[in-house]
Amino acid sequence: MYKNLFRIFLIFITTTTIFILYLSFFGIKTDKFNEFIKSEVSKKDTRFNIDLKDVFIKFNIKEKSLNLNSRDVIFFVNNEKQKIKNIDILVGIISIIKQEIKLKKVIINSTQNEISSLLKLIRAYKINIPILYFQNSVTGGKVIYDIHINFIENNKEQIEIFGKIIDTKLNILGREKLNDVKFDFFYKNKKIEIKNLKFNYKDINFLSKIINIDASNELINIQGDIKNKININFLSNFFKYDLKNYIDDNVQFLSKSNFNLIITKKFKIKSYRINSNLNIDQAIINLKNIHLTNYIKDFEKVLTLNNSSINLNIENDKINIKINSKFFLNKKDKPRNISLNYYNTGVVENYELDIDLNENHLIFEQIKFEKKKYEKLLLNFTLNKKRDNYELINFNLYNDKNNFTLKNILFNDSFKIKDFSLIKASFHNQDGFLNDISFQKKMNEIKLISNKFDISPIIEENLKSKNNKNILDIFDNLNSSVDINIKSAKLDDQYSLNNLNGSSVIKKNKVNKTNLSAKFNDNKKFIYTKDKIDGKRVTTIYSDVAKPFVKKFNFLRGFEDGKLDFTSTKTNESFSKSELRIYDFKLKDMPVLTKLLSLASLQGIADLATGEGIRFNEFDMYFDNSDNLINIKEIYALGPAISILMEGYVEKNKLVSLRGTLVPATTINKTIAKIPLLGNILVGEKMGEGVFGVSFKIKGPPDDLDTRVNPIKTLTPRFITRTLDKIKKKTN
User: Fold this and answer.
1) Which of 430, 451, 527, 447 is nearest to 483 (CA)?
2) First-residue to last-residue Cα distance in the chain
3) pTM of the prediction?
4) Per-residue pLDDT tens for 357-393?
5) Which phi and psi (to 5°) does residue 555 adopt?
6) Do the beta carbons of residue 389 and residue 418 sit within 8 Å?
7) How many domains, the chain?
8) Measuring CA to CA, which residue among 621, 648, 606 is closest to residue 722?
9) Which stretches within 240-344 are classed as H helix?
10) Is 8 in contact with 37 (CB distance < 8 Å)?
11) CA 664 to CA 208: how far, in whole Å?
12) Are 299 and 292 in contact (CB under 8 A)?
């Protein structure tokens, strides 16, 4: 009996198991649920309809439900249809037993459909996302999706959608168009997860591993990552600034970005954040409009960046860009470090630059500063921009021997200096001289303070008026008084001025008035003035020591002793008339004069020129300056041994051309001979042996002058007149 019962039980279990397995895998075909399914679909929305073919009853063991399954279903939303590959409707077994049939879950597996139809379907289900926006933004494209609808308590639904978008076009906020859009997506609880996104924007391919969209709150939160290669055209459009004028079109940037976007349900942007890392193998930046050739030797007007990394961080209206790179200005240079930190708050822009100038050969002629190639030199500065004004907060150019510091330099939009607080420098010039100088400005008063400073370039510029450029043109209408205090002002290797003190007045970038005075070591005087007289700028220099100033004229060499009186009148920016007078001096070791005297057969005087020197009572020089040309109207030198009258011109660093007359003193007036035996030296012991005088020409490069002479038997009226004027003045 027990065996029979066991057999019956075993048969029952086996039959039940087979039946359940059959129901699970194959099901039972029926049409009894067709109307039920259509009814349930219509309850959700009267626009919905469904075309069912065969319905199979299956048993879902995992869900403990009966599964109503149908394939190749057509789902209608009004006149739009969706092709459904498979649909499973799960009904709880307990609800069937209680005769309260309730849906537990619906699973829809679609075939490939038009995206627009899906959007209408989702909108009909009243999912709380702005589907209308997507309907207006999406063009074309296909979608494959799986929809899981879970029915929970109180007849609420929980919807999950898995899908894939294929080859669509998307219009972002009505502004930008994305083409060839492809991605996988998952939707649940008003949250969308997008994976493996690919699209093309402005002919650039973009990739994203994941993007999350959270629409569960009042605001929609979108965050994700983007990877792509971008070009200069893209960056120009992004920053709304044409970079193609500066960077080669072929440059490619490898970019990896993370972003976060928060928008309203009406798609108004509330906030956004982008963090991008860009890498560049090489970028050539065009600097043709930046004039640095006067300061950087072998500058090819391009900046080449190698192995650059750029970090871009944008948060609402704030932008932060960090650049770290290697660079060179010449192909022969070894790449050095450069870094830039740019920060824009929307109100103020901030630039921080650090650059290694080790490879560059720098020259600043106005202060005789030179940084040779391979000599260490670093530059860093902090610059702020607000509206149309720039402020250089801090600037440092330095190495272990030199330091240039600028603080609080305010520029206008043309980079003219509007104001500053401090300009300070401590540097060795090309002669190895250590300069230190500072300019401190408060309101309209500037204090120039220095312990040691080489003023020789400034003196040369004033004597020759060789530089038509006004250094004050770097300012935007500078109006200020300048208090000057230099303890030791270098003139050359032999002479310096002590306690160079005084003041200057600057109006509209022009030095209107200057008064300076100083002493030499032996208490001799130096006075410098500049003033505006009858609309002309007049510069005067008086010095009890002439030599350091006369040396600035390369064609006048060998001066010893003497006092100097110099006046220059500048009639316009490119032309000036000057007068140079020197008193009680001698010429010694002047090769040109020695050669001239030898050629004139005045060997006795030539011996003096190479020995103790030839003394002169007076020297007058009248000349004009224009650009790089000194036009010498007249040079007249009167002395107890000889007198000279000459004229000509000098081209800077190119050519000296002088011609004139040299006459022994006895020829002019034997009574003025002051040196014993000078008559024998000049005219010999017998009548007719002397030389009356010579005319001469001196021409050639400054270091290779050619001198030629011809004897003369008569003096020009001009020579006689000039000499008589000098004798008359001396007599009076």
Assistant:
1) 447
2) 169
3) 0.71
4) 999 999 988 788 999 999 999 999 999 988 878 899 9
5) -85, -5
6) yes
7) 2
8) 621
9) none
10) no
11) 97
12) yes
